[in-house]
Amino acid sequence: MKGDGEVGGGPEASGKAELTSVEEHLAEILAAIAPLAPAETGVGDAYGLVLAEDVAAASALPSFDNSGMDGYAVRVQDVAAASPENPVTLPVTAEVAAGDTGTYALRPGASIKIMTGAMLPAGTEAVVPVEWTDGGRDRVAIRAGADYGNAVRLAGGDAKAGEVLVTAGTLLRPMHIAVIAAAGRGSVLVRPRPRVVVLSTGSELAEPGTPIIPGRIWDSNSFMIAAAAREAGALAYRQAIVRDHPDEVRPALEDQLARADLMITTGGVSMGGEHDVVKAALQQLGTIKFRKVAMQPGMPQGFGTIAAPGVSGISGASGFGPVPIFTLPGNPVSAYVSFQIFARPAIGALQAYDGLGLESVRAELTGPLRSPPGRRSFLRGVLDRSRGRLTPLTGQGSHQIATLGKANALAVVPEHVVRMSEGDIAEVLVLP
Ligand code: AMP
Ligand code: MG
Fold it and tell me: Which residue, 23, 57, 63, 380, has most beta carbons within 10 Å?
């Protein structure tokens, strides 16, 4: 295995000083986001949400001694001599099914037929599985002895009363839902799904499905970001395209504030030009920082908060206070990468969940990669996880969305590295 790639020039060569690092930008974003207030939610609706309390077993699990198999409750001594050649025959004095709440006692020298999950009769020492018997109703012939506790599930054998079963901050998956229900909880405190309003700007944009003329393109960003937000666990509301007119942007955003926990725009934030209307419209608010982040794609980044006119105060989970806003660059690949690196963790932060960062693996490159000095490159590739290899895709331009459609991972080329070669081991972010 070869080294980490060819190292580029020093900080002067990279112009590093004026750029904000990826980590610093992300840290500022996460620090600015307050989690949404938790809400009591039925266990049937809690899947995919983040738990906001520790869920403990109210009582022991199981809460009573019960049978682990269909069979016969016995005393060990009564079946000790049983063998296939010389079965022991016992009278069957009762039958207990799962859900039977009656009281049964096992007499010495007798057996009680019992079903899986049924409460053990008093005096039971073991359950002989039905497979070891002739399955008799009034009398049963038993072909093998059983040890103490055979096929018996003791109260508390799964969890003790008061034991924490699922901790606050867990993203609830089906197994957690099962545990919550098994603990008897009909509802739990969870963070609501963040409501994300997505809006693209650009006078060149047309709705997909409508005809275009040269000079126009179909809007892909807003659909992509809305889908990515949903994938990250949010509710996404895609807005109509906003023209590059300074008077259109602010009202379009302010109209949506009441239903947004987070807003994401794309386009209109490049470094020059009066057509960069998002920047122009929001810069005067003074609550949004526009900066260059040391990455490629996605260098121009904006993040801050926006409030309805006249509203001030603390950043709002309620939807009425200032709402966090990302202004992502317009090139689709830049917007996509920026979302995954910055906005996805932010959606997590709204739920007090820190598990939405992209999974990072290491893989061997099957071809070379290039990166400008001083910037961290996120380059599209095809990751073969079973072989631990990443094949870089050709067409790494920020507008080259076709390449995005083929990628399942991003190779990371660090700031100080300008070139990596076939055979080098790279950090690779797995795309969700
Ligand atoms: P901007 O950041 O507005 O200067 O846009 C940079 C590039 O991204 C331009 O080529 C735009 O046409 C393109 N672009 C901007 N918004 C979108 C969008 N919603 N869908 C597809 N391409 C876009
Ligand atoms: Mg634009």
Answer: 380
Strands of 250-358, DSSP E: 262-266, 288-292, 295-296, 300-306, 323-328
Single-letter amino acid, residue 234: A
Ligand 1 pocket test: pick from 200, 207, 217 the residue with the most ligand atoms within 8 Å of its Cβ: 217
Q: What is the pLDDT of residues 243-264, one digit of tens each?
A: 999 889 999 999 999 999 999 9
Cα 204 to ligand 2 centre (Å)? 8
**What separation in Å is there between the alpha carbon of 158 and the centre of ligand 1?**
56
Instruction: Decide whether any atom of ligand 1 lies within 6 Å of the 254 Cβ.
Output: no
Name the pTM for this structure.
0.91
Residue of 348, 340, 335, 355 lying closest to 399 (CA atoms): 335
Beta strands in 307-358 (DSSP E): 323-328
- Tell me, using a 6 A CB cutoff, whether residue 404 lines ligand 1: no
List beta partners, residue 420.
369
How far is residue 189's CA from residue 49's CA, in Å, rounded to a whole number?
10
Q: Is 266 in the pocket of ligand 1 (CB under 6 A)?
A: yes
pLDDT score at 13: 46
- Rounded CA-CA distance 204/219 in Å is 9
